[in-house]
Amino acid sequence: MAAESTRRRLTSRQAETVRGLTEAAVDEVRKVGFDRLTVRNVARRAGVAPATAYTYFASKNHLVTEVFWRRLSALPVVDGTPGRGRVVEVLREIALLVSDEPELAAACTTAMLGTDPDVRELRLKIGVAIRGRLRNALGSDDQKILGALELAYSGALVHAGMGYTSYARVADRLEEMAELILPDS
Q1: Strand ranges (E), the chain
Q2: Segment (H or E) for 45
Q3: What span, in angstroms and rounded, lies between the C-alpha atoms of 133 and 131?
Q4: What is the C-alpha to C-alpha distance for residues 3 and 14, in angstroms, rounded to an integer?
Q5: Using the 8-state DSSP alphabet, how is residue 150 labeled?
Q6: pLDDT tier at 107 (50, 70, 90 boundaries)?
Q7: Distance between CA 94 and CA 99 in Å, rounded?
Q8: Helices then strands (H, E): number in the chain?
């Protein structure tokens, strides 16, 4: 088995199909935006039947959340001396995962708020991964500080999604929040 999906373990061929679908989803978001994105059109762009796409993804929210999950999972392991500087780096790298593509960033924010079970499962994985990255960067398991950092991150994404700030500015805002939350180090 080559990779894992939210729905099942994949063979190499299946993993390639899923990779093609996630890449096609990014292209489709760039072309038509999230509102007009459909799994059917993504399947067409990826060169597979819609039924094949629905084998792996229950909805467009599931598909776009998978795009974010894959980008997050591809980040290098948090390394270096723990402290505020490392936390700021982690927050910045997570915020910048999709910030250079505002349409994709908005799509990811919207998709991750989806309610279908596959999105909820991925959202949980994403939350656990982000918490782990923050814990490693902080060098501590202080639940209050980790919770505050997580709320700052999720709140910043919602702010950008609502148009109150740009996705590019989110990284700077998160640095400001980290400075308020964390003692000097």
Answers
A1: 3-4, 9-10
A2: helix 39-46
A3: 5
A4: 9
A5: H
A6: very high
A7: 9
A8: 9, 2
The encoded tokens of residue 166 equal 């740009």
Q: Cα–Cα distance between 63 and 54 in angstroms, integer?
A: 10
Q: Where does 74-113 have alpha helices with state H?
A: 84-95, 102-112
What domains are defined for the chain? 1-57 (1.10.10.60), 60-184 (1.10.357.10)
CA distance 163 to 65: 20
Residue 158 confidence (pLDDT): 87
Q: Count CB neighbours of 54 within 10 A.
A: 15
The token duo for 173 is 């805002």
- CB contact set of 11 (below 8 Å; sequence gap of 6+): 1, 2
Rounded to 5 degrees, φ, ψ at 10 are: -120, 145
Residue 90 and residue 97: Cα distance in Å, rounded?
11
The label of the residue with tokens 């993993």 reads 15
Specify burial of residue 59 (Cβ count, 10 A radius: 0-12, 13-18, 19+). Answer: middle
| Beta carbons of 110 and 162 less than 8 angstroms apart | no
* Sign of the torsion formed by the C-alpha atoms of 163, 112, 132 and 141: positive
Residues 120-176 have pLDDT tens digits of 999 999 999 999 999 999 999 999 999 999 999 999 988 888 889 888 788 899 999
